[in-house]
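Hi there, hope your week has been kind to you so far. Thanks so much in advance, here it is:
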Amino acid sequence: MANTSDIRNGLCIRYNHDIYKIIEFLHVKPGKGPAFVRTKLKSVTTGKVIDNTFSAGHKIDDVRVETHKFQYLYAEGDTFHFMNTEDYNQITLQKSSLDAPGLLKEGEVVTVIINSEDQMPLSVEMPASVILEVTATEPGVKGNTATNATKPATVETGAEVMVPLFINEGDKIKVETEKGTYKERIKE
């Protein structure tokens, strides 16, 4: 058993007969009244995100987890196939357990969080950023780059990312996986 001082991003807890992963939290100590922790929880079974507030010192039931590196192989409908990089065992996960399935490129190595008790995969953590090639975008208009304007671009995985006007087809860009936003252009 843990309490609210142990709350951190990525912690898996049992709550309302389900297992949730904490994706965001904030310790709040108002001037008047008791302290509390505001959290955003994502269900590892359904992918649904809920907001919850725990009072300070509240006991939470944390789930013991292991992390393993898996390589993404391919997708088949809403099922994604991964291979353990150590023992080459393959697992399949549903699209709902992935944070950013649109940014997942074949061969990408991700961290899979597995419940220690029953060896069931709980969720997939993407790397902080991925490098993807732009496959389709409108050409930028010359002289229109002084503003902070953006345009939609389709990357090799099929996802759409808003990019600056100077990005062209064939450019490689770094995309932040947490927000799905453009970070920088990669020069080769």
The radius of gyration is 20 Å. The domain at 65-125 is CATH 2.40.50.140 (OB fold (Dihydrolipoamide Acetyltransferase, E2P)).
